[in-house]
Amino acid sequence: MKQISNYPKVARDMFFAQLNWTFGFLGVMLVIHIIKIVLALIQGGDIDSFYNAMFVVTNIYMLVIGIISIYFLPYYVEHGVTRKDYFKGTLIAFGGLAITIPFITYMISFVERVILNAMTSISIREPDLNSVILEVDSDIVGDIVQAIILTPYVDPQSHWGLSIAIFSLNIFVYYLLGWLISTSFYRFSTVNGIVSIFIALVVLMLVDTLLRLSLDLPILNTLSGLNVLPLGVTLLVLLLLISLTLWSVRSVTKKVRIKM
């Protein structure tokens, strides 16, 4: 008798559970942003767009919920869901989340621009987030920090579709790396878990650099040697890195012992 696949239910449950968290996160960020707008009205000056503000902080948010995602596994296994279905369902759920967040953020930012342009004299700053890496002293620690905080950016005012796609890919990778770290700590020792953090940092820096190369953006000095790679090779290596990380998570979760 063929076993029933439960991954669609897992995907639906995890997507809506994490979407509820995301609405709370978006709500808090929107309140903070509105406060900044009010202060700008009172004191004068300009502000960053909601899109740019979310672009910077959403990476950390996705990393955190990626770390949390492993704790769904015992619940599902306890209710008869296979580890394979958990993996597939989680992958679909955070893929959907990675698409939904940038789209919602863009729509809020679009409404923000319309209202501010029509009703106030506040101007929206358009910082070049990609050029920041050229303004900071280059060393390995600085490059790691910049790779974590400032992911490759495309201005939504010039290429909104590409901008949303890059935003989605960035936060997809952060969720994936959080998932990798949490599964390593869950299955292995603390030492191996710490090793997974270093692996995640290496993957993050490589993905960041390869994506920047693909978009013809400034790259981190530490990995400037990759500048010689042609576009086809760059995209292939980027795909292989993400695929290898997914394979690693699947390999770990496939044999993990459930802690009840």
TrEMBL record:
It comes from the Bacteria. The chain crosses the membrane at residues 21-42, 54-77, 89-111, 160-181, 188-207, 227-249. Keywords: Membrane, Transmembrane, Transmembrane helix. This is Uncharacterized protein. The lineage of its organism: Bacteria, Bacillati, Bacillota, Bacilli, Bacillales.
